[in-house]
Amino acid sequence: MLTKQQKLERFKVLRDKNYRASLQLEGFDVEPSKVNVEVKSLTEAEQITKLKQRYAR
């Protein structure tokens, strides 16, 4: 039988996994290597412009 702490840790892992899967279904890049490289290479203004273009209708 699992202790309360073990159950809590398993729940946190599952919750994080589900959240990343949900983001991926929505079209976000959730791989840390892709996200970190892209974010570091763009200024804040460039990131905002890119997001506006991505979600423009």
Write up this protein.
It is a single chain. By secondary structure, the chain is mainly alpha-helical. The protein is built from three helices and no strands. The longest helix is centred in the first third of the chain and has 22 residues, at 4-25. It is elongated, with a radius of gyration of 17 Å.
Category by helix and strand content: mainly alpha
Low-confidence stretches: none
* Residue share in helix: over 70%
Average pLDDT works out at 82
Per DSSP E runs of 2 or more residues, the count of β-strands stands at: 0
| Beta strand % | under 5%
Number of helices: 3
User: Cα-atom Rg, whole angstroms?
Assistant: 17 Å
Specify the biggest β-sheet: none
Distance between the termini: 52 Å
Gross morphology is: elongated
Order of helices and strands: HHH
